Amino acid sequence: MQRSQLDNISEQGPADRKADTELRRRTLGTALLIGLVLCVGIALRVRSFQKQAGLCRDEAALASNIVERDEWELLRPLSYHQAAPIGHLLLLKGATRRLGNNEMAMRLPAQVASILTLFLYLVLARQCLSPWGQVLGLAFMGLAGPLVWYGVSAKQYSGDVLVTVALLIAGFRALQRQAGLGRFVLLGAVGVVAIGLSQPAVFVLGGIGITLIVGAVVGGRSREACGWIAVATLWLATFLPLYALIYRHYAGSENLTGFWTSALAPFPPRSLGELKWYYDHFFELFSFPLGLKFEGLAGACYLYGVFLLARKRDRRMAGMLIAPLIVTLTASALKKYPFDDRLMLFACPMLATLTAAGVAGIGDDDRTGGRVLRRIVATLLLIYPGYVSWNTMTSGLYLVHDIKPALAYVAEHWRDGDVVYLNFGAHTLGVYYANTLNYHNLRGKPFVYGVSAGDGASMEQQLQTYGKDLEQVQGKERVWFVFAMIRESQVPVFTYLLDRRGVRRDAYQGPGSTALLYDLRSAPSN
After folding, report:
1. For residue 440, which of 277, 375, 376, 411 is within the disulfide window of CB 3.0 to 4.6 Å?
2. Between 57-68 and 103-128, two packed helices, what is the crossing angle to 10 degrees?
3. Do residues 520 and 502 touch, judged by C-beta distance below 8 A?
4. 311 three-class SS
5. Which residues, including other chains, have CB under 8 Å from residue 270's CB and lie 6 or more apart?
6. Percent of the chain scored above 70 by pLDDT?
7. pTM beyond 0.85
8. DSSP 3-state assignment of 253?
9. Segments of the chain assigned to CATH 3.30.1710
10. Beta carbons within 10 angstroms of residue 179's beta carbon
11. Under CATH, what is the fold of the domain 404-519?
12. Of the candidates 343, 302, 339, the residue with the CA atom closest to the CA atom of residue 322
């Protein structure tokens, strides 16, 4: 040890040494907590990846596009009412070429992205949060149920989250670096790649670009403002051709826009109910996608976090975490993007960071009462994610839809003349496994696809709709009714109708799917 360091230590009084020891203790404690949360988050994702079996409906629809098309054909708008960024499609195609057309290959990119997100988020949190805030932010991200669930999905949402974190890191570093061409080139290049990998990346880039340009103009740095305008122009020049060739078809799809109608912001709001839409959807973000239970408390902490970050750190940092949500809401008001559910999963890093900043800021003056309140608030917000995480570790994902066991049972007991009836929710599953993959040699077998009675249909409406639909298989000797991706309340409706139209000959109940064999030549005698 150098003499100057020994002199400094010898000059420290008891109070200084005590403070130094306390600082080291807190630093070590924070590092251990971060390591623990990181390990738990990774374990949740690996556990879920191991427990997952067959693809769900939307995954199967996307997977059918991957299997049926080559790389060039993926540049065209997708079939089966699907929408995904070209970068994600190419990643899936590459995975299937190396690992085969199976569930693991379809889900591996999301799994890698979900785990990598946790490490990158820690880099992001260290740029703008206190040590206690870093632990909380990582806990929100690591334990969030929706992030875990979609971390084992063939869909693109985990990639959206990863891209958002990467863009925010690049944006924060653009604030910290000295003026120079390098930071413009770096952020511009990262943005171009992000647009190809993630559809909502354009909203994140819009928020980052607006923040940088406004910050430079307000600060009187006109040359810097021109540089950021040039970078934003590059991003726009990258996005517009993609929109013209592919994304505009999705934006104009009646099926997609119709499905998400309630998630499009009413603008201008013409009633109290429409004004309440904005209030409700703001707080719902903390329930889904962030996975917290006390939405009101989380929302209050988020707003407090905005105030603290803008006051104590950097207003431009706060702007980069808020502006992308405002840009997204604007796109929703223009009927271009739904502001709800899984399509807002990319917002989790921004929500988690500002909420963590708010919670960590409670009692940051080291008053005992404030510290106790901070711990109470943190505990309340983490109780539900902890409960969901425990269930995931002990029993796997809370919801499993696996049509493969039912299809395997049907194939094993198949006879000439058999027909398969698939309920409405299982259409794409049947197309993918039976036709695309030829699962158990089911390709070419006669499949009948059922209709939907619609969400919220009454029992009378369901009986009428499904009763009429069953007429297309009435009179056949052996009809396999395979149910998957269906509400439990709807299966009894079918069995009620079928038991009055024919005789049940066989039944199979699998994990997430059901197969019933009926003879529909004549109604049973009373």
Report:
1. 411
2. 110
3. yes
4. helix
5. none
6. 91
7. yes
8. coil
9. 404-519
10. 12
11. top7, de novo designed protein (3.30.1710)
12. 302
